[in-house]
Design goal:
With about 90 residues, this protein is mostly beta strands. It is about 0% helix and about 55% strand. It is built from no helices and 10 strands.
Amino acid sequence: ELGLEGHVHGVACVAWSPDGSQVVSGSGDMTALVFSAKPGNSDLALKGHTDAVVSAAWSPDGCQIVTGSSDNMVRVWDAKTGTAGLVLM
C-alpha cells in the first residue's frame, strides 16, 4: 500500500512516471504533487493553476509533466525541479 499525503482536496487524477519510480496526482486544491513510489510526503508541488487540476501525464522520457486544469490552461513542468515552462490557453 502506498500512502500519499499532501492534497487538501480530493484527488482527480494520477499518472505513473514512465520508469515507475514516481507518481503525479492532480487535485481540487489547484496543485499537482509528485511523489516517490516509496511511501512518504510529496517530492514536488506543481503550483500555478487557479482551479482544479483534472489531468496529468508524463512525457515518454520522464523529463516533463503536463497538467490540465478547470482554469482552461495546460501547463508543462520540469519533472525534476517543478519549474513551470510552457503554458497553453
